[in-house]
Amino acid sequence: MESKKILHNVFQNIEVGIGEVSKVVGVSQRQLRYWEEKGYIKPVSDDNSGVRRYNLSTLYLIVFIKEQLDKGFTLAAAFERSKDIRVKSKIVRTFFEHTFNDVKITNPDKGYGEIDLGELRTDDGKMYHFKGVVDERGRYVKIDE
DNA sequence: GTTCTAACA
DNA sequence: TGTTAGAA
User: Fold this and answer.
1) pTM, two decimal places
2) Distance from residue A145 (CA) to nucleotide C8 (C1'), in Å?
3) What is the pLDDT along chain A (145 residues), one digit of tens a residue?
4) How far: A10 CA to C8 C1' (Å)?
5) Positive or negative, the Cα torsion across A39, A44, A49, A52?
6) Going by CATH, does the domain composed of A3-99 fall within 1.20.1290.10?
7) For chain C, which bases have at least one atom within 7 A of a protein Cβ?
């Protein structure tokens, strides 16, 4: 199987217990159970042990909600905002999963490189290449003819 | 030792 | 939400 898909599966199947999540994220176990009761988060639906496990997606959601709470939003407001983030994340992920294959390393030591972001053909037949660049100047997009 | 539910502060 | 009790 393609390595990217394997890693995708691995990350998708990572599960963390409520104790770990609570400790690392800084949210109490009581809160996590309460958020679940409110329907905001859902433990991975598996066996009948009754022990809660959370996958990566839920983990991201938990972290996001926590951040919003810290900023002063109510729990309800935090969850409402997370809906936006989830859609945006999916869009970004879809876009970059596609372009991740076309990465050219320009400087291995410094971690510089170029990402092929696709082509653009204008009405008059000219062809351009969009490239995402990471180099000593930072992070930017350029257009090559 | 960890997690669960339920109940009360 | 925090905490605590009692069970798994």
Assistant:
1) 0.74
2) 68
3) 777 788 888 888 899 999 999 999 999 999 999 999 999 999 997 667 889 999 998 999 999 999 999 999 999 999 999 998 888 888 888 877 776 668 899 999 999 999 888 888 888 888 988 899 999 999 999 998 8
4) 31
5) negative
6) no
7) 1-4
